[in-house]
């Protein structure tokens, strides 16, 4: 990745009409319906944006959408990139850097995750308070990283305190039950074994997924305030583990999604 590549990507998007978005939003697996709320939308497919990776997962549609949501200019990633697709950390986080160059001042992230905490249920929403990176690498571990920001990034508070507090207050006001916890990110694409679920619980994870953390690390590198929520799509009880059903995970995400959309829209109004 070079500055010139990033400049070309951003120039293409600006020419398409992506004009000074205030908020960037990353939509996770089964969580693409927020785009239907965007007014005066402009789309840019990933395969048309210079130097963007291509989305390969069938339920990630692969485009950036720009428009107005609750009176604010937003740019939304409908479909993200994952290490399990064969991408590297720079590919996975490239769109975050592009959105920052476009002008975003806040970043919202969503994902679908499995519930490790047995007090949590599928269909719950969890605000990510902290995370554990189990993906075996970093999106900042490249030679010319200093051209993009400081090499050593503090991660003592990776999620923006003010936005997290506002989201908790909004959930309470809207009558939406929202858990809070620690998200662990693994590479995938295989799901975890019983022993791995036990390990995740021991090390303090409340939920597990295959995304988000590289994006959050880069947001912190760019001094970009970030808030993230998980839609819990399955319960990972090692003593009562059922074979995974991807269709059911997508279905649960779809049913819970309206609550997540409400939370995000109300937060956009307030910030």
From TrEMBL:
Q: Which InterPro entries match?
A: Nucleoside_phosphorylase_d (IPR000845), Nucleoside_phosphorylase_sf (IPR035994), Pur_Nuc_Pase_Ino/Guo-sp (IPR011270), Purine_phosphorylase (IPR011268)
Residues in Nucleoside phosphorylase domain copies:
23-269
- Does the record bear Transferase in its keywords? yes
**Gene Ontology CC annotations of this record:** cytoplasm
The reply to whether Glycosyltransferase figures as a keyword in the UniProt entry is: yes
Q: Which GO terms describe its molecular function?
A: purine-nucleoside phosphorylase activity
Q: Which residue positions does the secretion signal occupy?
A: none
The EC designation for this entry is 2.4.2.1
Pathway, per record:
Purine metabolism; purine nucleoside salvage
> Which terms are listed as keywords in the entry?
Glycosyltransferase, Transferase
What biological-process GO terms show up in the record?
A: nucleoside metabolic process
- The protein's superkingdom reads Bacteria
Its job: The purine nucleoside phosphorylases catalyze the phosphorolytic breakdown of the N-glycosidic bond in the beta-(deoxy)ribonucleoside molecules, with the formation of the corresponding free purine bases and pentose-1-phosphate.
The entry's family comment says: Belongs to the PNP/MTAP phosphorylase family.
This chain belongs to the protein called Purine nucleoside phosphorylase
**Protein species of origin:** Pelagihabitans pacificus
Q: What is the lineage of its organism?
A: Bacteria, Pseudomonadati, Bacteroidota, Flavobacteriia, Flavobacteriales
